[in-house]
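User: I'm curious what two different proteins look like when written out as structure tokens. Can you demonstrate?

Assistant: Sure. I'll show them one after the other, since each token string lines up with its own sequence. Here's the first protein:
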Amino acid sequence: MNHVGAVLGLGNTFAFGAYFLTPLAIPFVLTLSIWTGVWLTAAVSD
């Protein structure tokens, strides 16, 4: 129980990192497929 704050902070860092990287990844997925591919990628990664 000594490292609960560190673990919560690390989890939040990864969550906000995903929110930052997702808009950057959409154009690359669109070059490989259409919007259906973007939706499928989002569904599989969730």
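Here's a second, unrelated protein for contrast:
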Amino acid sequence: MNKRTIQSNVGSLQITLPISEHAVEWSHGRASSRDDYRAMLTEQLESPIDFPPLMLAIIPDDRIAIALEEGVPDGIEIACELIRYLVDHGCPNDKLTWVLGSKSPSFLRDAETALAAYGLSSIPIVLHDSQDQESHAYVAASETADPIYVQRELIDADVVLPIYCIRTAECPCSSDLFGISPGFTDAATQQRWGLAWLDDNTTHLHQHEKLSREAGWLAGVQFTVAVVPSVEGRVASLLAGKPESVFQRGVECLSPLPTETHDLVIALVDGAPQQQTWLSIARATVLADSICDPNGKVVVCCDVKKTTPGIRDLRSDTPADQANKRLLKSHAEDAFPAAVLRSICEHRSVYLLSALPPAETESLGLAHVDGVPSLEHLAEQSEKVCVIRGAQY
């Protein structure tokens, strides 16, 4: 049988996978990666989509908040280029604030290191902590009378510039078209979002659309920067301008799902170490599950190196619905990814190739894959194989 080879960098894991010539290789991303972010961003900021050049919308005394969603490929470098552009065009450093959509210490260290390399260390960085109610501001009640709270710096700013990654609405925890929900909302709002996603897709999509209108509009977001992922899990293009137009253009850049299902789906979390998270695993698993035969297998390749309190809850024998509701209410780290994985593992065999020891992987209800040879063996045993690149998108 003739074979071809797929090369993938999954964090620090270099995967060289021989597969049958009949196997399908697919990705939401259509284009190859680019990294000339300064040129890409400058072009978009000076010729945005359905919006005048950005600097025409900013006056000298405006307080500007740059909001970077967690999980954006090369998001830190793109945010630094945006901050550099603003400073170079006359925005004072003391009028700028960078809000990170995570309280991860490593995320903060990477951002601080990058700012220092750009000579912009004086720009303050704020970490979004959804459980710190004091750091949020009330904006309104939702259509269901639930209060909506958003990171205070985003409400207090005169201009908010979110940076987010284009994903489909079916992707767990995908950003709204304003780049605000659910990433920069409070824990209660995020919990409602998570429960809606788990309950059923129709409810989730309605919640997604509703929060997009409410939280983003109430935060005054008029301009967004969106990253379109590449085949290799990095950046294919940048889009900027009017939020609705940017989101529509971005979704049009994604490839539609394959129409056929497969008895083995291998989901590769291509990209840098920052992409190697349990949320990426949950997203990849959902995507793979959607194109897998009912009795098929899903394999996720992601370079996670440790479990977290939410993920360790997968060891519980409590019925899934009950366990997931309890887990989401606990606000434990990675509670939502764990709930997503539990809901899929109820009906599907899910395998994981990662840096975790076999016993730890299996204690979570996941089958351990010890390396590429085992992955190749699974592929040889399957008639219809699909390999998803950049499966976290």
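A detail about the second structure: The chain is about 35% helix and 25% strand.
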